[in-house]
Design goal:
The protein has 269 residues and is mostly helical. It has one domain (54-268): MetI-like fold, CATH 1.10.3720. 78% of the residues lie in helices and 0% in strands. The chain is built from 13 helices and no strands. The chain has helices at 2-32, 50-57, 59-93, 96-110, 113-127, 133-143, 146-157, 161-169, 174-203, 206-212, 219-227, 233-256, 259-262. Helix 6 runs antiparallel to helix 10 (206-212). The two termini are 31 Å apart. 33% of the residues are buried.
Length: 269
Amino acid sequence: MNNARAAGIARNIFLFLFAAFLSMPLIIVTGVSFNATRRMTFPPQQWSLHWYADFFGDPGWMGSLELSLFVGLASALLAASAALPICYFGWKYMMRLTSVLTGLGSLPFMLPPIVLSVVFLVFWSLLGHVGQVEDLVIAHGIVFMQLPIAAMGLGFKSIDRALIEAAETLGARDEDVFRTIVLPIVLPYIISGALFVFLLSLNEYIIAQMVVGFAMETLPIKIFNSLRVGFSPSMCVGAVLFMLVGLVGYSLIAWIGDLPKLLGSESAK
């Protein structure tokens, strides 16, 4: 018993130290954002909200933030809208074509971002449609579509087909079954998949830089471009906002859906 308790204490200490090690860069960036001066010092010698006021009062920073939020939301909506019919028809009809579409949907997610960046740059250049916000929305929607496909796939697998058979026996039509049984069960997984796309799109830099970086700046592009002219704590404010949005987003996923199951936990099955 003593050995087991000692092992448990050692495990908890290790996990705490590991979590502290991973959190340290985030803590440092957050602390630097509260510096009264432009120096990259931690802990701050003088605390101030000056750089937050500078960030939210600067049209350049706010424009980049608004653009990133729009691209993230639009990409999430596009990816979820494309993934839902693929998963639904694959679950309902067991079509082999659906497996092919699912595989094609996962292919962009597995390729290196720099390869995808070049592919999308060449594609939009050939179409003569470059530097437009919709280019980036479609690119992110395609690249991250595997996330809602995987999430919705788990949702459809959790549906008890006995419920469907009972509803059909009572005379329910396909649209009635979808609206009253399928959609309420799968909806948390739809929202979770869309949130995953939103969070990844919000933080994505390489594809955004290649597709629209020469015409407009998302917040990640704005942060990297600002580094070229020197350090400013305002970019740390942008990083803090990313952290807060990520924390809220993953908390929503954990609250709405089954986060361990979505992340592949066997025990959650």
